[in-house]
Amino acid sequence: MPSTTKSRRPTGWSPAGYTTIRGTTSGIEMLSSLPRLWWRNECAPKTEWLKFTRRELPDEEGVYTSLMDEKSVSPILSLPGRENIGLGRHWHGLSVMLWVLNGIVYVTLLFATGLWRRIIPTSWDVFGEAWESLKTYLSLDVPDISHFQPYDSLQMLGYTFVIFVLAPFLMLTGVAMSPAIRNRFPRLIKLLGGHQGARSLHFICMVLFAGFIVVHVSLVFLVHREHNVIHMVFGGGEVTSARAAQALVIVVVTIVAVVVFWIALSYWSLADRARAQRFTAAFTEIGRKIFLNRLRPLGAANTVDTDADVSKFHWTNGLPPTEEESTVWVKARDNNWEGLTITVRDDINDVEKVLSVDDLKKLPRHSYVATHTCMQGWSATSRWTGVRLTDVMEVLGPRPEGARYLLAESYGLAQKMYDNRPREPFYACIDLDTMAEATSILAYERNGHEIEDYLGGPARTRVESNHGYKHVKWISRLMWIHDFADYGDGRGGTHEDSALQAFNGRI
């Protein structure tokens, strides 16, 4: 039997429980931006295994964007709600960082104090005893208090599974959706079923974890309630009705306070979204700097992703420029790209050159297979062919002194601006280390043919270590710049400006 050591029994409203709930609500915001789950990377219409929308997807590519599929969820249910995927991702990242930190401290103390024996079974008898406990619960009966010393066998197995199996797998499937991880450890991601496999498994793990918390907290009040609440709040002592009532009030008030704070956090975020972006992105960048920024794509060493993985269907986020948006692009498209130019510029020294698509094709050719992932959740695998960004910018000569970023600008406009001002030309900035990666290219072919109009033709940037919002379609200009704070709203890109995403798109 477990140790008879008396101690407080953890509830679902510990720091871990709170960050789990906050992570779940921000996860709801992320899921609502693309309320569908697939097992296959291509995310083809009518192949979802689960969806939370009645909308039906058209079979034709390029006519329906992922932004059109977004659903608005109440701030009471999601963090922050109301179609704010950027802020939802920031809050999710911050919650996960706190959740992981809490887990590391908890497990460390668990083994340092020897209290692991309360949770981890030390005898095979635990399975038989757990089965008997399960039958008791299923019969709607209550196990005798003597079985809880401090936990019964069924609880021990539940805690062991959640702490040492479910939680680590939740972490693994979470980081597996990062393009930085996918391009550095492609074999691991393929083992998980690709991006969509990891996304679906992550969702299932979230449901199991949330279900565990609900059942766990419910049983606190249904099974030996007075004993439970007294030991949780006071750590033990005499079990009396007066002390149980006092402990119960403290528990209920704590739960209500947490829920109120969680909802208030949503409304605080929505009251000034730019402020919320500055606050949350600053904290989540700490995790990216510690871990993800150190990872570089394998490039040519990646033999895992092959042409056999190429998707038959490819989503898009954004539609090609219209006549009102760019007469230059529309006219060139109608004339087989005749006359279309791409400006390569040194914005520090006011020097530039103009290239045609044919000029691009004369530069060293680079080709690879990669999976594109949108921050909303969809993915598609293609073979991309083009010119490395470093080779394109070399037409201007050596990199100018003071250049710290590359800015790519589009002939197309942003889909919408978060403050409802007129739409502006789409742009994105990347740092020089990211630009130097072998899979950062200006692509002009996909799967052996010219890039389709809706996917960015005639040329688009590919930055495989980052999510799709750092990839610019319908490219019009590439520029050396000193500081992205001098362009747009100063956040480093249109999605950072209009959707409040993070400058660093590695996760």
Automatic annotation (TrEMBL):
Protein name, entry field: Oxidoreductase
Alphabetically ordered keywords of this record: Cell membrane, Membrane, Transmembrane, Transmembrane helix
A Pfam family: Oxidored_molyb
CDD domains: SO_family_Moco
Signal peptide: none
Stored SUPFAM superfamilies: Oxidoreductase molybdopterin-binding domain, Transmembrane di-heme cytochromes
Transmembrane intervals: 96-116, 156-181, 201-224, 244-268
Organism phylogeny: Bacteria, Bacillati, Actinomycetota, Actinomycetes, Propionibacteriales
Residue span, Cytochrome b561 bacterial/Ni-hydrogenase domain: 81-233
Organism: Acidipropionibacterium acidipropionici
GO process annotations (BP): respiratory electron transport chain
Localization in the cell: Cell membrane
CC annotations in GO: plasma membrane
InterPro entries in the cross-refs: Cyt_b561_bac/Ni-Hgenase, Di-haem_cyt_TM, OxRdtase_Mopterin-bd_dom, OxRdtase_Mopterin-bd_sf
GO molecular function, a single term: electron transfer activity
Membrane topology, as annotated: Multi-pass membrane protein
UniProt domain Oxidoreductase molybdopterin-binding: residue ranges: 337-479
PANTHER family (UniProt xref): BLL0505 PROTEIN, PROTEIN-METHIONINE-SULFOXIDE REDUCTASE
